Amino acid sequence: MSTPTATAQRAPAAGPGHLPSPAASGRPSRILVDLDALAANLRAIAAHVRVPVMPIVKANAYGHGLVPVARHLQASGAGSFGVAFVEEGIALREAGIDVPILVMGGIFGPQVAQFIRHDLQLTVSSLSKLRQVEDAAAALGRRARVHLKIDTGMERIGVHAGSAGAFIEAAVGSRWCDVVGVYSHLACADDPAAPMTMQQLERFLEACTHFERLDAPMPVRHLANSGGVLHFPATHLDMVRPGILLYGVLPDPASRPVVAVRPALSLVSQVVYFKVVREGSTVGYGASWTAAQDTRVVTVPVGYGDGWPRALSSRGEVLVRGRRHRLAGRVCMDQFMVDIGMHSAWNEDEVVLVGGQGAEAITVEEVAHTAGTIPYEILVQLNERIPREYRGGAHDAG
What we know:
The protein is α/β, with parallel strands linked by helices. The chain contains 11 helices and 20 strands. β15 and β16 form a beta hairpin. The longest helix is centred in the middle third of the chain and has 18 residues. It is elongated.
């Protein structure tokens, strides 16, 4: 066979897939977030469900960036947000987010006062948690706004639906708590054929009848996550809580794309090295990949230290100059190698890990399938080592 010749190590001024060099202090790898796509997704979900939408921005807004995403969504009409931990809620308050923020994780007693001081709504999931909140609120002389968590089958946190009467009665009668919401979480709604979802809805609605029995105002009832939004209209109730769907990603291979959303995140890098690898030579840790023939290999400065899955070793694909190419060898902490065969590449050529290039595109769902995991994990693992750039809205970098 003919021997591939090395491509020059100095990049040309321009060329297919070639990116302008980033700032001298910046990494060649970056996450690009389309804020206009997020706003459009929010509108599409709201039009589909016809009830208020609480965007879920936990876990750094599913890797998209907590504060920039929340600021843009609030400007786009979001009337509330959901997060997992008090620290996330405080970060939003300190960034100027002034709409209601629900912290959905289980509360830790010593932190309760922080919720109240920062006007964060708490998830109360048991009588003992209710007493903790009451004690903290009384000590501060400020009422707490709470959502009651009913367990309808997830077995994570919350009072079992069948024994929720005494819990709801105590919360309604609390001197220091205002019950503004009641909710549960769907375990199987990502699958439109799952029978458990309607069972959970029945249990939840039965638990909510205790408010009527007590002649108490019905708080906001919310149950639907992304799967519920897509597949189970009966779960939409008074508000929905989309997470991954808001970011333009389907929660499960079984999910149906009944809402027109588009991905808001791309992950791109650049070629930092090119070499010819001879037939029989191995590449990477463990010498796990062997060149079947003389080939060209490029190095990309992203690794599992950035959250890129090691499970993609010798399996994942990226786009270079509009073509798909497979990883060669194991993903390293800070880099991985790509077999580009007899094709050409220049240093500083764009490499797309998630997103489109030319007529080709790689989705988060595809990456997750190849890595043997779920789209959620791919997104939230992308950590702060990778700089984020925001396009659209007030952040347009164009």
